Structure formats: structure tokens, C-alpha cells
Amino acid sequence: MKRVHTSWEIFWRFLSLGCFCFGGPAAHLGYFHRYFVERLNWLDAEQYGQLVALSQFLPGPGSSQVGFAIGLQRAGLAGGIAAFIGFTLPSFCLMLGFFALSSQHNLDFLTLASGLKLLAVVVVSDAVLSMYKHFCQSHSSRIIAVLSASVLIFFSAIWLQILVLSMAATFGMLYHTHLKLGSVPRENLPTTQSLWLSLGLFFTLFVISCWVVYFSATDSSHLAHMAAQFYHSGSLVFGGGHVVLPLLQQNVGSALTSEQFLSGYAAAQAVPGPMFSFATFLGAQLVPLTPISGAIIATLALFLPGLLLVFALHQHWAHLSNIPRVAGATLAINAAVVGLLFSALVDPIIKQAVHQISDIVALLIGFVLLRWLKIPILLLITFYLAYAYLIR
């Protein structure tokens, strides 16, 4: 009974955060630290830092994975699920509402979409610059980022993205073995049953999703096929919500117009909570006859791989991260992710959003407002919506 009560508390805590956590994964992690480490003392700074490092190493939505892990530590699997639902529910509902608005095909929606596309350019540009400064501090990591971006700008096939990430990880394992790591106590590890069950389920579903994506002729409007496409994308997203864009574009983008795809992505920038809620909008668009079912299945399928891996590894991470080759692979993957994100910024984000000189001026103003003046994201949204209405 105590665990049930704790799970409800976790749900309401994360629900409140999900209603106002604007600004993307990095901002979410800042909110989590202030709320759960400094205010509630649910875990200490060292434990929190380990969870953040784990989320950077695994594919999936970083802030949602950290929230899920906090729930796991607090109340087991029920607590993890409560944290995930609470944090995701507000953005899920808002993106479903955005789909309902978009289905009306009126001028107001088209104007709204054009403004939100420009917002997406500014937010992703800021993310690229921030990630470059954080993940590309060494000469070798900068080379990895530049090479990754150069290849993926000209060749955007999904298999090539996977190859780039794999080659970066291999390079990091071989050449970044000099990292200075802290010592980890050699206490007994927790039971490995959850580890192998979760990893087994993750890889089984991944193999099935690969078969469906590459060999099945069923279209994306079939719920099972759509679930496989989103699970496949969620299994390969290193670097957080922004990086899901090129993967989803490859998997489901052909079933939607570029207007629908980028409008949904831009809307995901404008709502609080995890950017993976982009899947809510896409799922509803792909199955317009049963949009709620499509939204639920797409959202769960995109989040599931990252949550399975966190459930498997969160208790073992302190030991794994002390292995130099694992730390080196993480460093190199993060650098390659910067290149991947830059290629997505060039095409399709800028290509689809910028059409005239005034758009470029509006982007420069927005970037200054966000990057240097650090205005709240809601004010930036208002700026671009006003701009869209003025030039329509």
C-alpha cells in the first residue's frame, strides 16, 4: 500500500513538471535537479549525475529516461511507469489537440504552422551549438562531428546514419581509453534477472521491427506496422528528442506531406514535456480514422526502447560507466550525434521553413532572443506566431 501511495505521489510530481517544463531535454534535466535533488532530496547529486550519464549513453529521450529512472529508484517499476505517464501526459494531450486543429485545414492553421517551423529552426540551431560546445571539446570529437555532418548532409539514408554512429562508437572504444574515471565500489550487484529479461525483450522487438521496416510491404496506416516503425526509430535515437527527426523522416515521412511532418515537429517544440511527443501527432496523422489509437501506439512504441534499456541497466550503470572503452564509445557517439543533428537542421528543417529574406531576419532575431537574451520559450512562440500573421 505504501508503494501505491508513493507511485501516486510520483505521478503528480511529474505531471506538474510536464505542464511547464519548456525548453527541451537540457532544460528538463535542470528542472529535475532542482526539484528532486535540491528540493525533495529523493536522490543525491552523485546519483543524479549517474542517471544523466546513463541517459546520454543509451538511445532514447534523455530527460524522460532520467525521470523514469528516478521513479524506478523511488518505487520500483510502478514508480517508473508513474513518472513516465505523468511527465508525458500533458504534451500527449496538447499534440493530440494540435492534430485536431490541423485536420481543419484552415488558413489560421497554415499560418500557425509557418511560424512554428521558424521556431523549430531556432530551437534546433541552439541545440546544435549547445551540444557542439558540450560534446566536441577535443580535437578528435570535433573531427567526428564534422565528418558525420558532411556525410549525412549529402547521403541521408537511415542505414548510413546507423553506420556513422557505429563507426563513431568503434573509434571511441579503440582510441579514447585514456579517460580518467572515478573508482566504483565493488559491492555485490543487484539481481541480473531484470537485466536479461529487459535486454531480451528490447532486442527481440528490435529484430522484429527491422524485419517489418526493411522487408514488409504493409503501409504505415496498419497499426502493427506503424508500431514497428516507431519502435525502430526509438531504438536508434542517440542524443535526445531533436535527433528523432531524421530517423522518423526516413521511416514514416513518406506517408505524410512535408507540411504535416514539419508542422508536427514544430508544434512539439512549442509544448512542454518530452519532444518525443512528436510521435503523438504523427500517429494520429497516419491513422486518421482512429487517431487516438494511432497516437497512443506511436507514442508508446517510440518511448519503449529507451525505457526498456534504462530498466535493464540503471542499477548496473555505476560499474559499466567505469569501463574506459564504454566511456570512450559514449564520448564519440555524442560527437557523431552533433553531426547528425546539424544535417537534420540543414535538410529538412531550414529547407522547408525558410522561403524569403524576411524569414532569415526573423530567424536571426529569434536566435539572439533565445541564445543571448534567454527569453522564455513562450515569448519566442508568441514572436513567431505574430510574425507569421503579419506576413501572411
From TrEMBL:
The keyword Cell membrane applies. It is a multi-pass membrane protein. Its main location: membrane. Keywords: Cell membrane, Membrane, Transmembrane, Transmembrane helix. GO terms for cellular component: plasma membrane. InterPro entries: Chr_Tranpt_l_chain (IPR014047), Chromate_transpt (IPR003370). One of its GO terms (molecular function) is chromate transmembrane transporter activity. The chain crosses the membrane at residues 12-31, 77-100, 112-132, 144-175, 195-217, 229-248, 292-314, 326-345, 360-390. The keyword Lyase does not apply. It is found in: Cell membrane. Belongs to the chromate ion transporter (CHR) (TC 2.A.51) family. PANTHER family: CHROMATE ION TRANSPORTER (EUROFUNG). This is Chorismate-binding protein. It comes from Paraglaciecola hydrolytica.
